[in-house]
Batch of 2 targets.
Target 1
Amino acid sequence: MKTIAVVHAAQLVTPVDVIADGGMLIRDGKIDIVASSDKIDINGAEVIDARGKVVLPGFVDAHTHLVFAGNRLDDFERRARGESYEQIAKAGGGIWSTVEKTRAASDVDLAKQAKKHADWFLKCGTTTVEAKSGYGLTTADELKILRVMKQIETPLEIVPTFLGAHAIPKNQTPDEYVDLVVNEMLPRVAEEKLAEFCDVFCERGYFSAEQARRVLSVAKELGLKLRGHVDQLSNSRGAQLMAELGATTADHLEKTDERGIAALKCANVQPVLLPGSVYALGSTSYPRAREMIDAGLDVVLATDFNPGSSPTCSMSMVLSLACTQMKMSPMEAIKAATINAARSLDRHGTVGSLERGKLANFCVFDCADYREIAYWFGAMLPSAVYVRGELIKT
Ligand code: NIG
Ligand code: FE
């Protein structure tokens, strides 16, 4: 049995508490004791001296599109010339262009690219991600993406979500495609246990509230839990829809108003906010995080890592955006990216905080105050990342 003692952290951020001169005893990959350093018995343990450093749980990123082929550099340059996300999609860029590349890639090739993305996440201090399909849009290609998630050789924990209803294929009407999603894709996904959650992109030009309701209702009957891309570019009362369906999360919410926020609160749906996508799309329409927190919602922050609207794995960048653009406090932001995010993935029993019995997934930052992680924006990488007590080398 391997024992590791982390001692003398300037701050050990659990994040329920901040322990000055903090320490942790880890046995066999799990946290046994969290306390101030003088209470940690280092006898017989491998010692990690965290003097002058901040220790916090590995980030939990509850909204990513981890598996896709290629990039969207042309969209990026077009946006710099002033074209909008919707204009670019109409002109042959957008989600559809990633679908074409993803369909053309073999599963081996996709797994290779996804492994590279997984390494980026680990480097940034993220040890658990939710990952969505959605760049296949045929039964075979959606299943291929979900199977790839299980093949990636990585210490990163991956929680799979089926997002077949991400865009409408060119050769089908929206209703024909929704039929395919509910009659063919969802039963296969459920039967083969390829996903824990089902998601839908509810937006004009993508799936209407009615179509989203249909997909998510069938998913729920099949035993999947629900998440949803709602109210991102326009307010289509997506927050209310997710509340009505008893979803676990409602994601994006850039255009959600006070009525949407009240509905989320009533139905206990967690908001997942994605400021990276607002930033990368060059918009200023950040979601109303303060009102959500003041309403008593357990807000989650995530990267929305994807090649189109949010090409970043960096949770520290997201923390910075949350503090500067959404007026969250540094501690609110850290909780949103760890303990609240873990709850939204039903992983709060094992990850998301440094507590006895949980996995020893943690990162070490070379700074003495946790607020620095959000403050020195664009440059803050952990100096070490551990999963189940093992140092990760990427
Ligand atoms: O979360 N909004 C829809 N889906 C993604 C974007 C995907 C893409 O552009 O490839 C998002 O922003
Ligand atoms: Fe997304």
Target 2
Amino acid sequence: MTFIQEPPRLGNQYRDDALLRSYLERTLPGEVLDEIEPELDAMGALAGGELYEMQLADRRAEPLLTQWDAWGNRVDAIEHTPLWRRAEELAARHGLVAIPYERKHGTDSRVHQMALVYLFTPSTDIYSCPLAMSDGAARTLVASGNRKLTDRALPRLTSREPEHFWTSGQWMTETIGGSDVGASETVARKGEDGVWRLYGRKWFTSAASAPMALTLARPEGSGPGGRGLALFYLETRDEEGRLQGISIDRLKDKLGTRKLPTAELTLDGTPAEPVWGLSDGVRHITPMLNITRLWNGVSSVAAMRRGVALAEDYAARREAFGARLAEQPLHQDTLAGLRAELAGAFLLTFEVVERVGWAEGEEPAGGEDELLRVLTPIMKLVTAKQAVAVASEVLEAFGGAGYVEDTGLPALLRDAQVLPIWEGTTNVLALETLRALEACGGLEPLERLADAWLEPGERVGLAGLARLARSALGQASSRYGEARAAGREALETEARRLAMTVGRALELALLVRHAAWCHERGADPAIRDAAHRFAAAGVSRLHARRSAAEAPPAPVPVAESN
Ligand code: MFK
């Protein structure tokens, strides 16, 4: 009989996650954790059981666009996969969008929501995308103060009844691209009936089948750039269920996230309502961007956690060269490196989750918004890159099996690759970080924050790691100052390395804080190793300074070089 390898298996994804559990224990009041733990346990069971099994069985299913019916009518209907239909029902029932608006646990409601999302996401084939946009739309409508639209859409977006629940699209990207949104070409015209109608092409609309969307368009006669755009609310179908001046031209043929029906749309007279005046559309859509960037971070750490959980389980089952992989030092070392990256990314993401919860509170702490403005892009960009690197290494931990489609593993890498791209690429967010640093007066507020996180580490023998985190932040701060003094070009050239260095230094500082807390309570001892391991992989991403002697030679004048 030939050898047959056992596949990796997943258990209850809440119970098996020591980091999530110790984090929740540290951050939530005991009575809140007691109250939400049964929900987390149920979601952990679904994620490692029914949903994961469906995901494997559903591997080949993709959404289907039918543009015409048999009788020649244009219908443009998108059929979702079976797992997506189940995910929609579960998302509504578990309140994955509703929780931070119900605010049952006050400022802790964001942590409650995102802990559930973290468990739900890796087993539901990117259904988190429409949920992220729905959360972003709800937050934007609340921020706009538009009572009429909020009263109409918020009860739907936050409904726990699947039949009543709506998801929302976020239609921003046009043929000009998804980064320079201020250049959008969609036009809004007000008819004699007083109704605004939109005309243009939306080029990368995830969740095209959502019943509503927030989108940008330039009211006729408005000026250029983001200021000349307005934020519009629209409902995709009329009362008879017909699309309202929208054609779905095709679904994108993407590298990954293939279960997500991302579409190209033409808007030809789509009725829409201004949400927040007739200008400053880019500024007005930023609450949505900040929420979807938060979901991006949670999706990044959730993807890392899934990869690590599968690789760890497999290492305990797989024997090669006479021993299980889990007992072989080099494989152990590789997995330890992945766990460390996951832990750093997790703590930074959930730090931002907590702060979003505080900012949504009735009385946000002073200065919180400015800190969030700088922490959000840093968190998004650094965790997304970590997710791709971890996914790649996870596939390798399975050898050839990681490269074979019907193990379900290659999708981990393909799906991770979207995380640094959408919701602001690494470079776009690095530049956004510069703007946010300017607004909060440079790196000092972040250095003070990290100091407070690192302080308990010194009590429990982690002073060396604390020094390393402080030194990386100090280097970033001086490099920021030098580049700023050297001018715009020098500053922009350094932006990505600065943001990455700050992100990793903050992750290390958070690892030290969490390791100190765990150490004092005898909880989750692995986190201390993760902190050391993370530091050993390097924190600073700054290039060494060039000495004057290494400066490039002066350019040769054209006449001499000929
Ligand atoms: C699982 C999770 C999945 C999520 C799924 C979602 C799928 C959807 C797919 C997509 O839509 S992908 C496309 C995503 N595109 C982006 O995220 C946009 C990326 N580009 C940027 O972020 C640019 O920096 C930006 C468009 C904002 C630049 O445009 P502008 O016109 O040059 O804007 P500017 O001047 O920087 O900012 C305009 C105003 O907004 C300023 O305020 P003032 O008007 O008061 O001066 C800024 O301060 C403010 N602002 C900009 N970014 C902000 C912000 N305010 C708060 N937070 C921010 N992040």
